[in-house]
Amino acid sequence: MKRLILAGGGHAHLHVLRSLATTHWPDVEVVLISPHPRQIYSGMLPGWIAGHYRIDQCAAALKPLAEAGGVRILQDHVIGIDADQRIVRCAGVGKLAGDIEYDLISLDTGALVDASALATTDATLLPIRPLEAFVAGWERQLDRFTQAGSARLAVVGAGAAGVELALAVRTRLANLLGADRATVVLIEGRGVLAGHGDRVIRAVSRQLALHGVVRLAGHVAGAPGGLVFADGRMLAVDCVIGTTGAIPAPWLATSTLALANDGFIAVDATQRSTSHPQVFAAGDVASRVDRPHAKSGVYAVRAGPPLCNNLRQSLAGKPLQRHDPQQRSLYLLATGPKVAVVSWAGFTATGAWAWRWKDWIDRRFMRQYEIN
Predict the structure, then answer these.
(1) 230, 245, 260: which is the final residue of a domain?
(2) Domain range spanning residue 223?
(3) Distance between CA 152 and CA 185 in Å, rounded?
């Protein structure tokens, strides 16, 4: 009997759990280590913030999936791994607390947000990751805004996540408090949607202007009363949402695993560690050394099926198959109301039909992980 540990309930591991629920893997004990009983789907989070979904519609319940596949669940935090000794370390919340040995491990524990520059703000700071902490913090902050009858909020970081969140927050607060009592500011360090095409940037810029999101350029740090720009300008806000760059969990630095230049686990074309063949990694915790790509859910979701196949092949001692990430990605950016901007290979359009398309894709994705 071999032990496979699935560390984290990320998007790629959801597919592995679904496969185990439908096809038994003989002579394998599978243990899922996850700090939460559900996995929130990041693609639907802006829709939840805007008020279009309940949070349970945006999350996959891990327990039914695991039970259907005979997977043991340990609700705990991974705090370290000694890849040389094949040991994963947990915080000590569950029955298997401490060091757990494995024959094979797959890591899908995600990333953190580098909000260190914002940490000194007096405003409520809500980094977008981890998602569970953000969801709980946003619900508390929404109650505060409701009691105060007004809101001043800044979103720091103008990538796809920052844009969607700024528009979702503006929609929710305008509906809740009135448009004139809700100020939402998007802080752009390198411009909005850096790295995207001009057409989608123009389309998103129109949506930001249409919905009254204030745009300010520059780099900011936390300060008494809110935020301060590099040139000394002050911005008074009650809440700061951080969507700045992804950083690895601190325990990766002492894991004995080979790490990529960005500090995440270096993996090859089969999603296996470049230094330890008993370790696989997918999603934001991993960085492909042969085919670098953005840390985005669109890649994590596609990584699930080939990861599942290679885990099974590895356990059986069979050859692994390479996974080639898509060169082009379909982007469907929610704009707050039930309208979205679609971008694909130079084509860009905006409309309610794009939202309905996104909604259909997202709901179909979540239905895969429902156990009836």
Answers:
(1) 245
(2) 113-245
(3) 8
